[in-house]
Amino acid sequence: MLQRLFIFLLIFLILPDIYLYLRFIVHLTAKRWLRILYWLPAFLLSSGLLYLVYFSNNAFAERHTQAIGWFSIFFFLFTAPKLLLSLCTIIGVPFHKWLRWPRTPFICTGLTLAVISIVMIIYGSFIGRTQFDVKEVTYSSPKLPSAFDGYRIVQLSDIHIGSWQRNTSAIQKLVKLVNEQQADLIVFTGDLVNHRAVELNDFQDILS
């Protein structure tokens, strides 16, 4: 499974880089060191991916949960914008070739989407991840006894507590938000930890 995932992510990483290199970089600069520098992120990310899939083990993943999370963020921060730019410029090729449309609108669209994806990834990684939101859903059914009128259920899941090490304030905020709902029943539906129960050591009092 991990090996298949590795191939997919490697293609996701390398193919846009190859296309953008041949489409833009070789025309923008003749300096060898700049061309080599362009490939540095792809080399580092593919090396990290190779290590995680083939050489790391469960003990490594348990000890470095946050580091793996940050690696994932940087992976998509470098790959998603390039993929969007590549797709937009590739879509523009037949329009330019057969209809003589200019390439500029497709390139500008790709650049705009690339910038938007960068902003979204950075926002989600540093700000959005702690912007907890309550989504209220009202359920009614003639099969429910009248005693359940106004009965409140809070459902939450996927806390992955190992990803919040040294950030207890965010979990305190989450718990406060849950308690403010004055629920009759709280339902937690899975993935409390990433790997092992020891991740809970610093959070037991908060979650209690």
Provide keyphrases for this structure.
single chain; two-stranded parallel sheet; 2 strands; 62% helix; extended
Describe it for me?
There is one protein chain. The chain is mostly helical and 208 residues long. The protein contains eight helices and two strands; from the N terminus they run H-H-H-H-H-H-E-H-E-H. It has helices at 2-28, 32-38, 40-54, 58-63, 65-99, 104-126, 168-180, 204-207, and strands spanning 153-156, 185-188. Strands 1-2 form a two-stranded parallel ribbon. The longest helix is centred in the middle third of the chain and has 35 residues, at 65-99. It is extended. The two termini are 36 Å apart. The mean pLDDT is 92.
User: How many strand units?
Assistant: 2
Spans of at least 5 consecutive residues with low confidence: none
Element-by-element helix/strand order = HHHHHHEHEH
Quick one: biggest sheet?
Answer: 2 strands, parallel
Radius of gyration: 23 Å
Mean pLDDT: 92
Instruction: Give the neighbour order of strands across the main sheet.
Output: 1-2
Distance between the termini: 36 Å
- The proportion of residues forming helix, as a percent range, comes to 55-70%
Structural class: mainly alpha
Shape: extended
Fold blueprint:
Layout: H1 2-28, H2 32-38, H3 40-54, H4 58-63, H5 65-99, H6 104-126, E1 153-156, H7 168-180, E2 185-188, H8 204-207
Parallel strand pairs: 1-2
